[in-house]
């Protein structure tokens, strides 16, 4: 009966492999699996305290204090009209997530869906970002998600460096409050803003950590670019795995391995 003893463990292994593949398939091959519906459960407004921290992604030290500082910042800037985007926005998109996150994602600017809802990364690119985070074995609530610009540029046009300047102190202050160990900069505009260098080429710098004021900054492609160029998902997945390793977390098994 040696063989029957073997069957359950082989099955378990197979089942685990299938589950891991499905998890990765959710974002490697997005068309095969439905996108998790946005039922509003993940919504965090700056005014709400974060959910209790329970896992290794969270540092339990002082989430309420950090949340209070984020609330204060939001109060100070919620009516901002320092640039013309303040005049055309529907809602200012402050950012959301765990105020004590070890990992923070920084994108470019709100799009139409974000402008309507007042939440970052909730449109198509945002749904892909959510799947990327989940493929890392995390949830949106584990990380913090923000943007360089808090208001939508009309027609989603790329902001100029001069247009980014008035908004930059806000994301810098958010980073200062949250104190993430790692920032994942999404796309050229986010990197140009964070590095204060309009000549940045994302294709040249992606995939290697940069020491950014004592924080590890991983530049990678923007999810909106991945929607247009899905073949680049593979290298972004490598960048996300490098982030997990840096955080001391186990990357999920790779598809096909
Ligand atoms: N793209 C971004 O850079 N940020 C968002 O919030 C949404 C789309």
Examine the secondary-structure arrangement and name the CATH architecture.
3-Layer(aba) Sandwich
Uncertain spans:
1-5, 28-54
| Estimated helix fraction | 40-55%
Number of helices: 11
Q: What is the gyration radius calculated from CA atoms? A: 19 Å
Structural class, from secondary structure content?
Answer: alpha/beta
Describe the structure.
With 257 residues, the protein is of the alpha/beta class. It has one domain (64-246): Uracil-DNA glycosylase-like domain (Uracil-DNA Glycosylase, subunit E, 3-Layer(aba) Sandwich), CATH 3.40.470. The protein is built from eleven helices and six strands. The protein has helices at residues 2-28, 63-77, 85-88, 112-117, 124-135, 161-164, 168-178, 187-195, 202-205, 223-228, 233-246; strands spanning 96-97, 103-107, 144-147, 182-186, 210-212, 215-220. Strands 1-3-2-4-6-5 form a six-stranded mixed beta sheet, sandwiched between helices. A hairpin with a 2-residue loop joins strand 5 and strand 6. The protein starts with a helix and ends in an 11-residue tail after the last helix. Mean pLDDT is 84; it is low at 1-5 and 28-54.
């Amino acid at each position: 009966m040696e063989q029957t003893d073997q069957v359950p463990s082989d099955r378990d292994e197979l089942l685990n492999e299938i589950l891991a593949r499905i998890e990765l398939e959710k974002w490697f091959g997005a068309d095969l699996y439905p996108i998790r519906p946005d039922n509003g459960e993940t919504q965090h407004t700056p005014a709400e305290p974060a959910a209790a921290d329970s896992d290794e992604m969270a540092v339990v030290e002082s989430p309420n204090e950090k949340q209070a500082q984020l609330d204060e910042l939001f109060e100070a800037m919620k009516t901002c009209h320092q640039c013309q985007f303040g005049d055309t926005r529907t809602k200012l998109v402050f950012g959301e997530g765990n105020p004590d996150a070890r990992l923070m994602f920084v994108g470019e600017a709100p799009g139409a869906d974000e402008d309507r809802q007042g939440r970052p990364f909730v449109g198509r690119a945002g749904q892909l970002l959510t799947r990327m985070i989940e493929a890392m074995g995390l949830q949106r609530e584990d990380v913090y998600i923000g943007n360089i610009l808090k208001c939508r540029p009309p027609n989603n046009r790329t902001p100029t460096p001069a247009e980014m300047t008035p908004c930059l102190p806000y994301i810098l202050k958010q980073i200062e409050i949250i104190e993430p160990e790692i920032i994942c900069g999404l796309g050229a505009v986010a990197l140009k803003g964070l590095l204060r260098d309009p000549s940045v080429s994302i294709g040249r710098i992606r995939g290697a950590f940069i020491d950014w004021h004592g924080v590890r900054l991983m530049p990678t492609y923007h999810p909106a670019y991945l929607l247009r160029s899905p073949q680049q998902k593979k290298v972004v997945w490598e960048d996300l795995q490098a982030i997990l390793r840096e955080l001391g977390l186990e990357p999920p098994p790779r598809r096909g391995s």
